[in-house]
Amino acid sequence: MHARQRRQACIFTGRYTSRRSLEATTSERIITAASTLFYGEGIRGVSMDAVAEKAGVTKRTLYYHFKSKDDLVAAYLHGRDQPNLALFEQWFTGTEGGAQRRPAAFSPTSPSPPGTRSGRGAASSGPQQNLQACPGTLR
């Protein structure tokens, strides 16, 4: 085993860490910083310098994890859209019938899928109202 491949215990916590776990944490920090900046200033208005500064990493580290701003934006959008896509899948799964009936899942007259509720604890009149609670929607 090479010296670089050995895992070493952290001198502060005594835990063993691997480079992969550190990379995931750094990537998540970068995406979180980018999300905050993109939301406040718009994607075009945010530089990679600003993202690196907000995330507390060097530009070299930022470009190690994301080869370009396009890659960072793609990761940001992917993370932002996943909760919505999971919710849509839940609604579609709860819709009776085939693909022709799926658009009806968003009808204001259709009942909410099981387990979904409106903001005040009462059942909403349909999934359309629940769309307002999806991450990334403007209010």
Describe this structure in words.
The protein has 139 residues and is mainly α. It contains five helices and no strands. The termini are far apart.
Throw out a few tags for this protein:
0% strand; mainly alpha; flat; 2 domains; Arc Repressor Mutant, subunit A
Question: TL;DR of this structure?
Answer:
The chain has 139 residues and is an all-alpha fold. The protein is 48% helix and 0% strand.
Residue share in β-strands: under 5%
Count of discrete structural domains: 2
Instruction: Give the SSE string.
Output: HHHHH
Distance between the termini: 56 Å
Give me the secondary-structure topology.
Blueprint lengths: L18 H23 L6 H8 L3 H7 L3 H25 L33 H4 L9
Helix pairs in contact: 1-2, 1-4
